Amino acid sequence: MTAKSGLTLRFLGTGDAGGIPLFGCDCEICSNTFKGNGRRRPCSALLTCEGHSILIDAGRTDLVDLFHEHPFQRILLTHYHVDHVQGLFHLRWGNKNLCMPVHGPHDEQGCADLLKHSGILDFSDCLEPFVSRSFDKLKVIPVPLNHSRLTLGYCFKYKQTRLAYLTDTIGLPAETERFLCRWKPTVLVLDSTHAPGSASVRNHNDLHMALHIHARIMPETIWLTHISHELETYWLTGGLQLPENVHIATDGTEFCL
Amino acid sequence: MTAKSGLTLRFLGTGDAGGIPLFGCDCEICSNTFKGNGRRRPCSALLTCEGHSILIDAGRTDLVDLFHEHPFQRILLTHYHVDHVQGLFHLRWGNKNLCMPVHGPHDEQGCADLLKHSGILDFSDCLEPFVSRSFDKLKVIPVPLNHSRLTLGYCFKYKQTRLAYLTDTIGLPAETERFLCRWKPTVLVLDSTHAPGSASVRNHNDLHMALHIHARIMPETIWLTHISHELETYWLTGGLQLPENVHIATDGTEFCL
Residue B23: which of A18, A64, A112 has the nearest Cβ? Predict the structure, then answer.
């Protein structure tokens, strides 16, 4: 896609907690990642709006390398599961002249000792469902999701463009779905962890659930993310046909809108 | 060094929790790491004895890449601080046909949800101070250390060779020091986190404390590890002279004994 309004999203990770490759797995999919193809790292993204960058979730543990030259200005956390925050365990001990704002749901437990020993991270400015905030020229509306832990999705508005980023979730809370049907996102990024009919569906959408949400919200475009090894296997071996405006996110994919 | 008895130790990481580079630090030391020099990853090592490999601590988050071709057989944890276990957050969701034994102190809290959702990891076989164990041809004696969390050092014996691996610690408990003076390690690997006179000495040795332990235990060789950015700066700028048998460990250093 070409740049439209100056809002860019880059997928830094599109995997679930196990990701691809899985440790100790010698299947063809995992083996290919060691040749440089098809890796799925912890689900996260970088949103850039007129030079201001926001890291959405911090599950990548190589943030020091990724952002050595062009750092982000703040972090939004969807929730405190370890695969969404583990990159902060290193980042917090960074240059003491920095103070990095980390916004997320008000979850006192946090993850491990992250809130107790926060280092350069400032967790004080939590976000509330449906309470709109502005970060430079970007407006953000947090929305509650259905997960095993207090979790927020984020609806970003810049000029006439609307982007909803919704992981981790199984289905949507009724109030969130009503909001999205009115708000009409241009682009929807959505949790689609499991293969259809998976025995392990819990706390995350399977592909059919994700497509049903797509059909109800009707964004112009949807990107499926938080992909499991099981779902990757399903669609690589099953000849899956998806509607034209449904895309499968991959690590490194970037789109402008 | 050349191989002597078939026991090899490779330092996988020799840094403290912040390591080198620190996030957002543009000092010369940190900048050099992006040219490939001097990185210090989370403190950990691989011990190999006649083809049987033990991972000592799991703070490296790239274990899936490091051990794709030649996996280790078990893991010994010194303690459950996040920089010593964070690699397990990914590893646990690996190939379900595997079962990876993880031995460490009996610490019910663990780290984040690691013990609750252990995946392929088996944490059931904990180690007790001064209770000797054998893993294949290697004998292991756990010893208590002084840290902010229940922590074990490990004394490995193979044929006539003795290796003590002691991180994280400030000084040594009297019973551990008495044991080591009798046991007489050939090689000692020791926590030396802080620069001498550091304002932040707590829970870890500074360089002088480490050298005093060395003088009391008198191993043939000592390797200093768990190095902070502060200590790295101190000795790179201070023209530090160390006794002949005192070595500073670096990531990737391997020795045989």
Answer: A64
Q: What is the mean pLDDT of residues A245-255?
A: 96
Q: How far apart are CA B114 and CA B105, in angstroms?
A: 14
Predicted structure pTM score:
0.96
Taking the mean position of all CA atoms in its chain, how far away is CA A97? 28
Euclidean distance between CA atoms B94 and B172, whole angstroms: 37
Crossing angle for the helix pair B174-183 and B207-217, nearest 10 degrees?
50
On whether ipTM exceeds 0.90, the answer is yes
Domain spans, chain A: 7-256
SS3 call for A94 = coil
- A contacts of B58 (beta carbons < 8 Å): none
Q: Is A93 within 8 Å of chain B by CB?
A: yes
Contact B103, B126 (CB under 8 A): yes
Q: For the residues of A225-245, what is the DSSP string, one character each?
A: ESB-HHHHHHHHHHT----TT
Under DSSP, is residue B20 helix (H, G, I), strand (E, B) or coil? strand
Top-level CATH class of B7-256? alpha beta
